[in-house]
Amino acid sequence: MFQSADGGSTPSRSHFDWHDVRFIGAVAGRYALSDRRVGDDGKVSVYACRLCSISTRLAVVVGPVVGREGESVTAHFDEFGILRGKISRKLPSGFVMELMLNDTDRNKLGGKIVWQKKRVHEQVPDKRDHKRILPRDPRTVLTLGDGTQMPCFVIDISQSGIAVSADIWPGLGTPMAIGKLVGRVVRYLDVGFALQFIQLQEIDQLEILMAPPVE
């Protein structure tokens, strides 16, 4: 998906080597769109997202709100820090973000990408009672008690509950369904809210049940 910085020729061992590195893999984060504001104070909404791939020039992001081409984006990922840029292309499930970096910051990001590629081979197992997983496709549909539906982004999911980011802020105790999974809002997160399921689910069925309902 990403082209080399020099159009395809093999670069010499220089700073352009950093510009050619890329990482492909799921990394959780958050983002804000410059044109998406809520409330009387004009506060910018922050959404959960997943970084699918990154080079020192482009990033592919999946999230609940796509935005428009040319819109400014500020994203944060623990592994890569704060990234600023503009939406260069909209995708069915997210967008391609053109990164705005000077040469120094681009080289630093290149180093982080190389480090992250090595780090993924040394992941520590999750020892919680109900392991949280990152679904392969995090986009689905949220259904409220009155039948209202809206797109949402699944931050993570376990046998007992699910963390969601959406363009809504429901009250604690609000019943709703994520796909076919029914639960109630039990707590708020920085970028969304968490539901506890009415009953424990089979772990191998989670991604099937959270998928959008078929029309």
What is the CATH topology of the largest domain?
A: Thrombin, subunit H
Query: Which regions are unreliable across 5 or more consecutive residues at pLDDT < 50?
Result: 1-16, 124-128
> How many whole angstroms does the radius of gyration measure?
19 Å
Strand content: over 45%
- Tally of helical runs: 3
CATH homology-level superfamily of the largest domain? predicted glycosyltransferase like domains
Number of strands: 12
Percent of residues in helices comes to 10-25%
Termini Cα gap: 32 Å
Order of helices and strands: HEEEEEEHEEEEEEH
Summarize the main sheet.
6 strands, antiparallel, barrel
Describe the strand arrangement of the main beta sheet, using strand numbers.
1-2-3-6-5-4
The CATH architecture of the largest domain can be named as Beta Barrel
**How many structurally independent domains?**
2
List keywords for this structure.
single chain; 215 residues; six-stranded antiparallel beta barrel; 3 helices; 46% strand; globular
